[in-house]
Amino acid sequence: MADPDPTPQDEAARAGWLYYVGGLTQDQVATELGVSRQRAQRLVARAMADGLVHVRLEHKISACLDLEAALAKRFDLHLARVVPALPEGMDTATATAPAAAQVLERYLAQSDPLVIAFGTGRALSAMAAEVMRTPHAQHRIVSLISNIAPDGSASFYDVIMRMADKLQLPHYPMLVPVITDTVAERALFNALRPVQAVMQLADQADVTFVGIGQINDDAPLYKDGFITRAQLDELLAAGAVGEIVGGAIDAQGRYIDTPTTRLIGSFRIPAGRDKPVIGIAAGKSKLAAMRAALTGRLINGLVTDESTARALLG
Amino acid sequence: MADPDPTPQDEAARAGWLYYVGGLTQDQVATELGVSRQRAQRLVARAMADGLVHVRLEHKISACLDLEAALAKRFDLHLARVVPALPEGMDTATATAPAAAQVLERYLAQSDPLVIAFGTGRALSAMAAEVMRTPHAQHRIVSLISNIAPDGSASFYDVIMRMADKLQLPHYPMLVPVITDTVAERALFNALRPVQAVMQLADQADVTFVGIGQINDDAPLYKDGFITRAQLDELLAAGAVGEIVGGAIDAQGRYIDTPTTRLIGSFRIPAGRDKPVIGIAAGKSKLAAMRAALTGRLINGLVTDESTARALLG
DNA sequence: CCAGAGTTTGAGCAAATGCCCAACCAGTGA
DNA sequence: TCACTGGTTGGGCATTTGCTCAAACTCTGG
User: Fold this and answer.
1) How many CA atoms lie within 13 A of A297 on its CB side?
2) What does the pLDDT look like over B116-140, one tens digit per residue?
3) Structure-model confidence comparison of residues B134 and A115, the more confident one
4) CA–CA separation, A78 and B166 (whole Å)
5) Exposed, middle or buried, A278 (CB in 10 Å: 0-12/13-18/19+)?
6) Between chains, do B53 and A57 touch, taking CB under 8 Å as contact?
7) How close is the nearest chain A Cα to the Cα of B56, in Å?
8) B58/A51 Cβ within 8 A
9) Domains and CATH numbers, chain B
């Protein structure tokens, strides 16, 4: 019974197994593993924190189903997914994450190799955490936008790396910084061979997952230090209400063009794509941006929550 | 906020969502839903009991991985899956179920249509409960053995119906009773057109899932009233140690032939099949039967638990 | 309108859980 | 060797959860 050296994660997994699958109490888990009750509790908590444990709900609440149908019809979407709302002010990313992960997994399960493109942001990051193994085909995953700020620092949400790590797939990170200092510098990056390869791959992606950013005082682009206050103001003045993988859009979902937008180094998603482009976003603050992205047909699939769905329709 | 008529199951799902995905306490769930704490607790419990909530572990414990490799090598298996053992005497079916469901889901995700065959029993039944809906291709599912006792009553574990119901797939139940009264009666059944269709389908199944039954005083076949004490004794006397979809086998995994076995109305799985035949079983009492099935090459895939795996290898 | 069976409800309570804190332990640098 | 820092351990306690039980409620048949 005495394993020589069960790694800490192994122990956590075992504790989590006994607790969640076996339905033992933490006391029983402790006895079984020969550790104290507290340690068992910590192992179980750790299994959860490390993302070893995944919880999903099977049943679709009819109210949500109705909203999905309504969204799909209203905005002519390939796919609409609505999850029950968490109480006001709760983290919306964790709410959408399991549903988004499920959508992604459906593509991952496809047997012919796909190119799958990802944006960044909290929603995508949460999705990455929720995705489960799929030992299948050789898909390729490509990033539409880097997470490198102009000062060279990286923001947290490195979606593509987390994803590649988890799924063991060949991946193509975006090399161009989110925003460069001059147009010339950006052109320099774009001329690079590997950058062109990534852009080309992004262009032919079989399915694309993006977050949707609001452009206002809480704009992620600004909060995370990618653009300055002045640049934010410039975008606002030009009528920007939202942003998709860095591309600022107005209320009609048209890309806007200002000195700042010309410095952005991400792949620009074309309007009205045939292939699925799935937006993952929820929350009051993102409403205007989401409406814009939907009307501009920049996305043709949506994962959101109940209250956001209602607001979009009402 | 006030939905007109949320079905009871909707409410349960919503409560489960808030509790498990949202991480709220039952008190908060109660407030959110506008019900008493007790009702919230009951809804959450119900969501679990109704199988709406699915919990899975991502991490593979290295000890189990080692056992999988060893099993695959020793018995030349296509697939071996070993889950951590639950403490002595705990229900083994619930332990293997999530892993088995995951294996099945992998096949379900395949895009070209498959024929999937199922046996019966507690292990398969538990697996059925754990499977999550995969909205994909038009597979067909076929039953290898009915659950009808000679007196016309059905045992609980109606795997194929549960599965078909859950996955919305066309299904082909086995019509022949598990055991008939006379050989002539059995022949009568087998001559029926639909029966022959089912048998043929079973024969060409792309993947087969079966439980493994022990033949001893606790034999499921006997316990569930399919065979009499006299018939059990007859099988034992003929050297039976186990049974796969009703077919009694000796310690070497060869089908045995007695008056009783000639009355059995199930599909007989041939030895040494190429296509995957996955056995799902665990527990001390099943050891001899499992060893027999493995050595006789009646199965070429196995889902079991840690202690059983160790015992099989040791 | 009422009696009765079966179900649902909420109060109360015991068990289980999460978390804080002080004690302890291992490794490091003086 | 010793003091110190960072991390781990288990005791104790507040919160949360599961469960029992009696009361209330609903549905049915007289």
Assistant:
1) 8
2) 999 999 999 999 989 987 767 789 9
3) A115
4) 24
5) buried
6) yes
7) 5
8) yes
9) 8-49 (1.10.10), 62-313 (3.40.50.1360)
